Amino acid sequence: MIKVIDIGANLTDPVFKGVYHKTHAHQGMTSIPDDFSDVIKRAKAVGMSAMMVTGGSLHESRKAIKLAKEDDCLYATVGCHPTRVKEFETTLDKSTNSPNPEKYYNDLLKTIEEGGDKVVAVGECGLDYDRTHFASIEIQKKYFELQFNLAETTKLPMFLHNRNTNGDFVEIVRKNRDKFSTGVVHSFTSSMEEMLQCVELGLYIGINGCSLKTEENVNVAKAIPDDKLMIETDCPYCDIKRTHASYKYLEESINNQAKQEENGINSNGEWWLAPKQKVKNRWTQDFMVKGRNEPCTIRQVLRVLAKIRNQDEQYLADVIYKNTTKVFFPNKQL
Q1: Is 21 annotated among the ligand-binding residues?
Q2: pLDDT at 30
Q3: Residues 186, 5: contact at Cβ < 8 Å?
Q4: Phi/psi of residue 278, each to 5°?
Q5: Helix count and strand count (H, E) for the chain
Q6: Is 234 annotated as a binding residue?
Q7: 161 labelled ligand-binding
Q8: Is 81 annotated as a binding residue?
Q9: Helix ranges restricted to H, the chain
Q10: pTM above 0.70, yes or no
Q11: Which residues in the chain show pLDDT less than 70?
């Protein structure tokens, strides 16, 4: 049986409670439905044994821990995303009413400690030069480096973010490599050279739909060493779209499933290839919301990787599962 772990699920996003841009959009029932429990059920139905709920800020990290404590299969990361690092400098010291980055750092550390064994990584932290309108490069670098101290103090692995950083990410990781055990560069979209540099530093590579958009992406994913590969959805984002280079590796399976259904053959075993969906304002129970990615689609990522790497799907799932438990769940029985 295939078992999977989603290392990056943004389950604190309000869309998983039916709220889009602060508006409840789900309709079709006597009351506004909350389909979060259905999202979790669908994930477990595809063999999901654990999901890491991503913390991208202090507030979000606290929400991730609260959510993780409500279900045995959920765990959390704690950190500050590069687009949110200005929060270090907008946190005020109550006594002086002046910026106090140290307080924000200490609150992150306290949150990790209070989360106990539900916290499995420091992050999401790193660099993102595609979105410097949220935080300048210098501020991103400053507070990325600071978060290595969280990993050094707590002995947790790291959940890392890297977008278009012209070698700065690798340079900072290399400089601080003695402060943390290991970690994963999630939602990887960088070059072959940068992938190999990350692997050389002992990092793992997380692959999702956004990691498989282009032929170059596919070639990089194909070359990741077996023992450094992990998978994720980064939901509600990063699904595999028809326009992606990777879609053709799903197309045959999807078409075969459609033919089986036309011939009256039950193909529910692989329903995750083309799950039933409705747009958000017409949503009804037992349907996914169109345009909102979910953890259950992690099996699509696994299928694509197995095909491009010419590997047996069960074998690859077992390898990835072993990698993930080794890093994030070394003392847990999932």
Answers
A1: no
A2: 45
A3: no
A4: -135, 150
A5: 11, 14
A6: yes
A7: yes
A8: no
A9: 36-45, 58-68, 87-90, 101-115, 137-154, 168-175, 192-200, 215-223, 248-262, 298-308, 313-328
A10: yes
A11: 27-33, 260-268
